Amino acid sequence: MERDPQDLGDDHHEERFQLCEVELAQLQLTQKEPEEGEVLSGLSQRRLLSAVAMEEFEFPASIHLQKMPLFPKWHLPLKLMAVLMAVAFVYTFLRDVLQPYVSNGKNDFYKIPILVLNKVLPWTSITLLALVYLPGILAALLQLHRGTKYSRFPVWLENWMSVRKQLGLLAFLLACLHAIYSLSYPMRRSYRYKLLNWAYQQVQHKKESAWVEDDVWRMEIYISLGILGLGILALLAISSLPSVSDTLNWREFQCVQRTLGYTALLLCTAHALVYGWKKWVELKQYVWYTPPSFILACFLPAMVLLVKAVLVMPCLDKRLDRIRHGWERPSRKGRSDKDSL
Amino acid sequence: MERDPQDLGDDHHEERFQLCEVELAQLQLTQKEPEEGEVLSGLSQRRLLSAVAMEEFEFPASIHLQKMPLFPKWHLPLKLMAVLMAVAFVYTFLRDVLQPYVSNGKNDFYKIPILVLNKVLPWTSITLLALVYLPGILAALLQLHRGTKYSRFPVWLENWMSVRKQLGLLAFLLACLHAIYSLSYPMRRSYRYKLLNWAYQQVQHKKESAWVEDDVWRMEIYISLGILGLGILALLAISSLPSVSDTLNWREFQCVQRTLGYTALLLCTAHALVYGWKKWVELKQYVWYTPPSFILACFLPAMVLLVKAVLVMPCLDKRLDRIRHGWERPSRKGRSDKDSL
Amino acid sequence: MERDPQDLGDDHHEERFQLCEVELAQLQLTQKEPEEGEVLSGLSQRRLLSAVAMEEFEFPASIHLQKMPLFPKWHLPLKLMAVLMAVAFVYTFLRDVLQPYVSNGKNDFYKIPILVLNKVLPWTSITLLALVYLPGILAALLQLHRGTKYSRFPVWLENWMSVRKQLGLLAFLLACLHAIYSLSYPMRRSYRYKLLNWAYQQVQHKKESAWVEDDVWRMEIYISLGILGLGILALLAISSLPSVSDTLNWREFQCVQRTLGYTALLLCTAHALVYGWKKWVELKQYVWYTPPSFILACFLPAMVLLVKAVLVMPCLDKRLDRIRHGWERPSRKGRSDKDSL
């Protein structure tokens, strides 16, 4: 036990805290050097704490906090999220803020706190969501290619697969923030002032109606798709709470995570595509020869959905099912028999 | 164990996966033919999976997924929700979209993705919420009528009672979606264009102030009631999470589910009634001789609240309390004594 | 067991419900007179209920509901919240509604259901959030002053510390309601009418642009800070769900509750300060010689953050760390040795 030199000799305190020390000794016995994974669970720690009535800021220093793992499963997803957000931020900042300033001298820096951030959030969110479903597809392709399920996946694929839950939860968090940011648009002073200026111009130009049927339809549909997508993502997130997922049996868990998951990805991709509408072909959207961000954002999820659509076609689906039942491609079997000689 | 014919003879694989097979054998021992309800819990399944490091898409085919129940408690509530939504959609579509088109040739089809859907959502939501509290009231009335608690309820009532939690959660989900849809109104292009056109007309008519005191009050009150209702429903939903409800004692659970539940129903009904305001008596609201949807939506919850208000009156409440303490009406006792002969 | 006199003699019923009674007897054995804390957990109660297939409104009266504690940990936080909300409501009502009516005869009573309530909610929320972190700071100051950790804290401080989780959850609930209320602003009729009138005036005054750069920036920043603060509070709230916090080890729990908690407090305080912007120095904000509510609301959280900033300075942080490792100030030790004689 680590102790300061000044700490020796205060035996009367030790006596008072004897119960505490006994329990801590037990704790240390079970803890020692926390070998990988062998760390005292949070639950029993907190039970101990409530047993000896300690406040958390009094947590005994002899329990080496530094040796406890700090969200080991979240490191990779968080780093990935940070990188994606940084790239998306720079790209959006260049296109939406810097380009108007450089080309037309237009000061649009006020867009950074909300409008730029609210392009970064959905872009990162949908990318993370696609990355949840990409490894499953890669694994299926690998199994089809190998013709057997009795081969280990590469390490990187296994690592990736083991953090899918974390990726999905981050995607949901960013999607929620995106929703709140979007809902706050008409609250902002900048929106109010723009609206007043548009009204002024409409009166000046004696334009009786501002209605643009095309634009109205576009926005009604993509908002509706976005809300439905968020609702389904919320169900997925709730079902991944430990206490909820414990009450589900395997088939229910599969149904939620797979069926609802792909539905959410489909709705979110459709949401992004309808948001784009005809901007695909409008040349003015390609400022500085860069495509609008929704095209880049849609690319990965659209690929995932496309490959998935191919994989659920009867011929491939049946073969994959047989492989997962233990069937092996004859050529493959011969090869692996030779391997075992 | 079901196996493909090709699967025989690959013993070296069997060896490699021996541990896995042993565990699966244990699994099958406990599972065999899943007799009703006797299905391996999701928890132990997933523990098994993590023990043998299988990915879920590799889940052994010998575990018959098809025989596992798929959300058995949710079938009835989901079907009910689907029917209610379909009816509400048709009704709203006819009144809000088709009638203006047929009568005035007005093209309001853009209303379908958001405005029509956002009448369907609250209507279904409040109906489901009323259906959570209706069976309790029917049961109380039945007990009062029979004068005893020692009689089984009809099967349909017991079934209904057993899915109240599911009905409540669906009501909450729809209420959340309704809130997000409502908050998205001023974001939409259609709202912006309408606003600009109103501004144009106000200028043309030289109307200094657009303020309508009555309308302002109506909207401030019903939004406030709606948000408070949603807040209380959220507390109810959180308290029904397994890990949260496990920490509540019986009295706390009762207090949340009953007191908060009726408060939420009251707030939501008031929200709908204030939304209606004076439309009750405005003849133009009765297009094609149909009443506005909020009247239909309010009917059931208002009935439930009314009967509940009667039931908590001292005379009835005391009698019900005595019945639930085991007291029986004398005439009833005589009859049941005869029955037992 | 309490029973009505009429209840005697219905033995045939007793037989039918024998199983039930046996289980209840067991229940009563474990329950008897519920001595403090020794109350049957909600879990086992509900298991019992499902075992004997009783509906909750049939809950046996022999289990004395009145003797069960009703959210004992929530009494103090809820009372505190009620008092804070009442004070904030009166203050805001006087300044925002009564003052314009008395001074200028302006009827702003329509502000009560949303605008006044939505000043009360964030004010109470940020105060509760500051009260979560204040006791930890007081305890640290006390430890520094006493120079030892081997002294009990005063009872009020221990009680306060034991309800920090509840205070935090209430702060989050109010913050969520505040967010929804704020997002509903542009939906309201009052906002629409004001907007139309502003547009009318802009046209009358032939003002080409309504844009106020300063105001735009202020609002973009404070909305963005508020949303981020709410997002972090949501993470904190989720991590305090029993099933989630059980999966965290001590260091993770610390990291979430402390690092994220102070980040949230910082963001929310910044949100309030940016909302204030230059109103600090505008004399017209001090109606009836009272400061604007955001100044009062910011005071406590700003103090907490300031003292915390001082406490994490190396010299104090090191000393506090040594005290928590068991070190005692020499003078203190002499004194306590005398005490023990």
TrEMBL record, chains A, B, C:
GO cellular component terms given for this protein: endosome; plasma membrane
Annotated transmembrane regions: 76-94, 120-142, 167-187, 221-238, 259-277, 293-316
Subcellular location: Membrane
Membrane topology: Multi-pass membrane protein
Occurrences of domain Ferric oxidoreductase (ranges): 123-259
Principal location listed in the UniProt entry: membrane
Entry similarity comment: Belongs to the STEAP family.
Keyword line: Membrane, Transmembrane, Transmembrane helix
Organism from which the protein derives: Pygocentrus nattereri
InterPro entries, sorted: Fe3_Rdtase_TM_dom, STEAP_metalloreductase
Protein name according to UniProt: Ferric oxidoreductase domain-containing protein
